[in-house]
Write a structure and sequence with these properties.
Elements (H helix, E strand, L loop, with lengths): L2 E5 L6 E5 L4 E4 L13 H23 L4 E12 L7 E12 L5 H10 L8
Antiparallel strand pairs: 1-2, 2-3, 4-5
Length: 120
């Protein structure tokens, strides 16, 4: 697994790529950058959403839940001063499906998902 960020030479814009041929742009919004892509902090939150979402889907399927849709939203609070590290990240899982869910199993899956940093 490999990912790379190459500075474009303009503002804070980076061209992102991985070893599977995917590409994206990261950039800060004005006045630091042109806003040509998601900020690195938002990319981190989006990656966390996708990673925990994959795990939640895997767990809910194993639990035989009638899942047809999942949206994961992350909101983060950051320190006001440099280095502006995240102090809190909140995750919200919006799940839809055909048929009733077992609420205890859904709670279990969404509680476990953020704590797994390996393949589900």
């Amino acid at each position: 697994m490999m990912a790379q960020a190459q500075w474009s030479g303009q503002g804070f814009r980076f061209e992102l790529s991985d070893d599977r041929g995917h590409a994206a742009t990261a950039d800060e919004g004005p006045p630091l950058g042109a806003g040509d892509g998601m900020s690195p902090a938002n990319l981190l939150l989006a990656a966390l959403c996708a990673c925990t979402g994959i795990t939640a889907i895997s767990l809910l399927r194993k639990m035989k839940q009638p899942l047809t849709g999942l949206t994961v939203t992350a909101e983060g609070d950051r320190q006001p001063e440099w280095p502006r590290a995240f102090t809190v990240i909140r995750l919200v899982y919006e799940i839809s499906g055909e048929g009733p869910f077992d609420e205890a199993l859904v709670r279990k899956a969404t509680r476990l998902a953020p704590n797994r940093l390996r393949r589900p």
